[in-house]
Amino acid sequence: MKDIFHILFYKIIIFLKVNSPFNFKSLFKSASSGLVYLIFAYGVYLLTQNTIEYLLVTVKIGSFLLHRFILIVLFIFFVTINVGNIVVSFSTLYKSKEVFYLITKPLSFTKLFLIKFLDNFFYSSTTLLLIITSVLIGYAVYFNLNWTFYPIALFLLILPFMFTAASLGVIILLIILKLSSKFGTRKVLLLISILYFFGVIAFYFISSPIDLIQRVFDYYPNINQYFGFLENSMIKFLPNYWIADALYWISEDKFSRAVPFIYANVITSLTIFSIALSLAKKWYYQTWLTSLNISDDLRIKSRFNNKLFRFDKNSSLNSFDESIIKREFWLFFREPNQWVHLTVMIVLITIFISSISGINVIILNSYNEYLKTIMYLVVTLFNVFLIASLSLRFVFPLISLEGDTLWKLRSAPINFNHLLLKRFAIYFLIIFFIGQIICVFSNNHFPIQLSIIAQLNTAIISISLITMNFGMGGIFANYKEKNAIRLASSQGASITFLFTLFYLILLIVILFIPVFNFFQLQSRGIKTPILNLFATTIILFVLSLLISSFSLRAGLKAFQKDV
Fold first, then answer.
1. Terminal Cα distance for the chain, rounded
2. Does residue 374 contact residue 59 with C-beta atoms inside 8 Å?
3. Is 374 exposed, middle or buried (0-12, 13-18, 19+ CB in 10 A)?
4. What is the secondary structure of 462-480 as a DSSP string?
5. Residue 306 has pLDDT above 70, yes or no
6. Across residues 262-266, what is the average pLDDT?
7. What gap in Å lies between CA 425 and CA 423, rounded to an integer?
8. What is the mean pLDDT of residues 93-99?
């Protein structure tokens, strides 16, 4: 165990030395980043308080349903951490240069696995922990909870919950690699994807949030009581249920009823982590050997050489544009982390779109305009968040991934700006198209006026989010890092993510009143002119224009400085 702490300690020292050279520029950059984090944390704190107050006081959904919404959010949170750790851990545990170095040292494979697992967990969880801590403070202040709530919630509820998701992700990765040696990587990944898809769908059937809302509102206005008897008993075995119920009983000042859920959460986390270590002891070295060949198995095969993206095949494009498109195609698909992660995200998006299919029940049967407005805003925010996630993952690392080839570009007779903008345009068009598809399917249950406005707003927001990630990727470029996933989890990416969340909050402020007025007039049988809603589109267009122009200029200027 001493070896583990020594290596982790030296990793922290090296990180501080490499990332925090003592000079005015770096000090100013760190202070600015810290200020952004603090402002964001305070904003999340205020948003949490106001959201809870709005749902309980204005909409009057009751504490039980509030915590059932938290249960669903925690489920999404769990799946995101779990799937993210499968993808990221493959790069961290099997493909990093540090693993190739440490594996030659007199260090057991179990210790090596533990070091890289903890490194990966804390490296990718910093921003999430900041957000969660701010949410917990806002939650505790609203319910006037004792100071003891903070350590209990953070160390006995949230951290074990995240650790369970991460450990389970690593276990699944070990199983994937173990089975890949026998059945082939593609078949195993397909099977795992199918299981995930049906697992998420099964959760929505078991938890049945729409049915639960209807059953609870059958008791309206007496909804300030516990309605656990209305839920499917199978859901009570899930960690997100334990967290939600523990929070419910703590907020009701009945801590003793929360203790069993806290205990189950901690024990489950330790058990899953122990299983991960046990499997690593047996399989890590064997799966590491398997991973040496897995990249070749996942790469695009040579049969594509005779098709559209073969370099010696002519097209109607000029030679410069054609070479850029074909280069991006092969660079993207030769790296399994890239297209596998894209596939995973598309599967999650598909699941989200499928889960929206029942939203019309809530919209048609909602008892007031507040709930209708919330549902519309929630769907819009999910759409935007998915677009932002794709942009952060694939557009933010774009400039940094030039890597060592950046220095070769200096001697090439090309315009650097044109090269970057055309590379950017490829990813922009793909993500923009995906965003429009998501919007079409997720908004088709709303009135036609809102659907049209949502489509226009999504298009405008997509432009600003994608260009923002491009510009921030230039400002926080790191040409030494070749792993796109780690670039998308870096400090610069975290700050970009915080700006995105600020943007989402601003989006709520801009849309809330017009959408609420629309539903209010609709409930009275009054037709609302679409121009009233179109005003939000004009505001977003101006905002998007400012963000996009600034981001593109800043990104290109930073790139020119580096070159």
1. 45
2. yes
3. buried
4. HHHHHHHHHHHHHHT--TT
5. no
6. 95
7. 5
8. 80
Residue 13 and residue 20: Cα distance in Å, rounded? 10
Calpha distance 142→50 (Å, rounded): 9
**Torsions phi, psi of 516, nearest 5?**
-60, -45
Catalogue the long-range contacts made by 134-137 (C-beta closer than 8 Å, 24 or more residues apart).
Answer: 134/40, 134/41, 134/42, 134/44, 134/45, 134/48, 135/44, 135/45, 135/48, 137/45, 137/48
% of residues, the chain, pLDDT over 90: 14
309-313, 334-338, 445-449, 534-538: which is most confident: 534-538
pLDDT of the residue at 32:
66
Q: Cβ distance 292 to 129 under 8 Å?
A: no
Spatial neighbors of 457 by CB under 8 A, at least 6 apart, are 380, 511, 536, 537, 540
pTM value is 0.75
- Residue with the larger pLDDT of the pair 374 and 176: 176
Q: Which pLDDT score, from 0 to 100, does residue 377 have?
A: 83
| Cβ–Cβ under 8 Å, residues 466 and 428 | yes
Question: In sequence order, which ranges of 224-254 are alpha helices (DSSP H)?
Answer: 239-251
> DSSP string covering 248-312, please?
HHHHTT-HHHHHHHHHHHHHHHHHHHHHHHHHHHHHHHHHHHHHHHHHHHHSPPGGGGGSTT-TT
Task: Please state the domain extents for the chain.
Answer: 53-299, 334-563
C-alpha–C-alpha distance, residues 322 and 312, integer Å = 10
Helices (H) then strands (E): counts for the chain: 21, 0
Q: What is the mean pLDDT of the chain?
A: 79
Looking at residue 440, its pLDDT comes to: 84
Radius of gyration of the chain (CA): 25
For residues 321 and 419, give the distance between their C-alpha atoms in angstroms, rounded to a whole number: 9
Task: With cut-offs at 50, 70 and 90, classify the pLDDT of residue 197.
Answer: confident
The whole-angstrom separation of Cα 329 and Cα 323 is 10
Higher pLDDT, 352 or 365: 352
What tokens were used for 271?
A: 């058990």
Of 28, 2, 218, nearest to 111 by C-alpha is: 2
CA distance 371 to 218: 16
- Separation CA 499–CA 470 (nearest Å): 13
